Amino acid sequence: MASFNLVKATVLCFLIQGSLLSVDSAIGVNWGTRSSHKLPPPVMVDLLKENRIGKVKLFEAEADILRALMGSGIEVMVGIPNELLGVFGSSAAAADQWISQNVSRFMVKGGADIRYIAVGNEPFLTSYQGQFQSLVLPALVNLQQSLTKANLAGFIKLVVPCNADAYQSASVPSQGTFRPELTQIMTQIVSFLNSNGSPFMVNIYPFLSLYQSSDFPQDYAFFEGSSHPVVDGQNVYYNAFDGNFDTLVAALNKIGYGQMPIAIGEVGWPSDGAPNANVSAARAFIQGLVNHVLSNKGTPLRPGVPPVDIYLFSLVDEDQKSILPGNFERHWGIFSFDGQAKYPLNLGLGNDLLKNAKDVPYLPSRWCIANPSLDPSAVTNHVKIACNAADCTTLFYGGSCNTIGAKGNISYAFNSYYQLQKQDFRSCDFDGLGMITFLDPSIGDCHFLVGISDNSSPFGSSNFCASWIMTLWILTYLKILNSL
Ligand SMILES: *[C@@H]1O[C@H](CO)[C@@H](O)[C@H](O)[C@H]1NC(C)=O
Ligand SMILES: *[C@@H]1O[C@H](CO)[C@@H](O)[C@H](O)[C@H]1NC(C)=O
Ligand SMILES: CC(=O)N[C@H]1CO[C@H](CO)[C@@H](O)[C@@H]1O
Hints:
Layout: H1 2-21, E1 27-31, H2 41-50, E2 55-58, H3 63-69, E3 75-80, H4 85-90, H5 92-102, E4 113-119, H6 136-149, E5 157-159, E6 161-163, E7 167-168, E8 177-178, H7 183-195, E9 200-203, H8 206-212, E10 230-232, E11 235-237, H9 240-254, E12 262-267, H10 279-294, E13 298-299, E14 302-303, E15 310-312, E16 367-370, H11 380-389, H12 405-420, E17 434-437, H13 461-477, H14 480-483
Parallel strand pairs: 1-2, 1-15, 2-3, 3-4, 4-5, 6-9, 9-12, 12-15
Antiparallel strand pairs: 7-8, 10-11, 13-14, 16-17
Helix pairs in contact: 5-6, 6-7, 11-12
């Protein structure tokens, strides 16, 4: 009987823990995985739990991540990449199969709590030149049928995360309309989403407005009031987020869906890689946003009605993202790649500050730097190769490592490459121009990283052997062995 009670108590404990987690807050995070230094999914899920983050948005339906989220009580959005929209629109069987293998499979007792499926990711982005435009609705229709067949339609909602470039206004928010070539398609899609009880999902980035336009008033991007408010009849806008949001409300209103609930799929501020992308700006923006949302003030066109959900972009930095838009692309995380908080932040979820990831499987504390005796002009090619593979975005104008000097640049590039190669000692050779050090070469705000091991233990077998050989080699090199 005692053991039975123990079991009951344990179950109860988990139930309570689960319900504590799902404090009903609108705030969630995007969890992207374009990273060469990935924390193991269970460590990431612990990070979410420690920070009481109860909602997470994925860009795909990665099985290892969903497995780690099972039983966590965290609500999940899985994503379908744009490239699959065509297949699901033309084949009901393909849609059925995807739902069954990537969704139903995890929706078991004690499984993953999948609430949304994002159908495409910003499929109407202007730069895609319409290639996905006509594929969204047929995919929605088939996937909705698949959900119905799987008995999940009452529980899981389909959404289409749109970039804010789907709508525009020549002047003030109340003049908002969808882009003319999208009006018809948006009307059909919004009508479909509305009939299934789904919100409209949009990604809003005041940072990009500021980055792309030199005359964008800086204070209008934040939430501390603006000396350049936008006056729209009786309504006055003091921040770009509200202005953008209400432009969408106006656009929805013009196609007959002015009451459609709106969710924010992505919103955030990068901490590195551009002059306006720094830690203090990122903190100010995100804290301002969270406070604004939690105040339940809403916007002038939707007073007292905050967005249904808000997914911050993003949880951790991703060093393999394309830098076509800019070097800041790899620095959107509220945590760095290794789950360490970049700045103090109160998400309004119960903790006053962010908590760092625990049990991070770091590689050993060692770095690759430029041999002090080298001639910097001899390494241009090595640096190019290193930075093509690894991340060097902090070295450029506006980045946290932009002022560490010519030799510092080389060391930084060498180290990024060495860590990318999991500290394989051959990757620090660079024709004899690189050397390994046990002293952290970080300078001021410029942080020289130590990578993360693929194995969850820092002494995984092959890695341990490599470390041992490495140590012997260095000891020999330093002639310490001779004196022992
Ligand atoms: C950080 O960005 C903010 C906002 O754009 C800017 O005002 C500030 O000067 C930047 N800080 C630094 C140290 O570059
Ligand atoms: C370091 O590299 C960056 C990026 O190429 C460059 O902007 C900066 O001027 C370099 N610093 C020196 C001292 O060469
Ligand atoms: C992202 C992901 O894990 N997708 C899986 C979905 O299901 C298909 C099979 O239909 C797998 O091949 C994918 O890997």
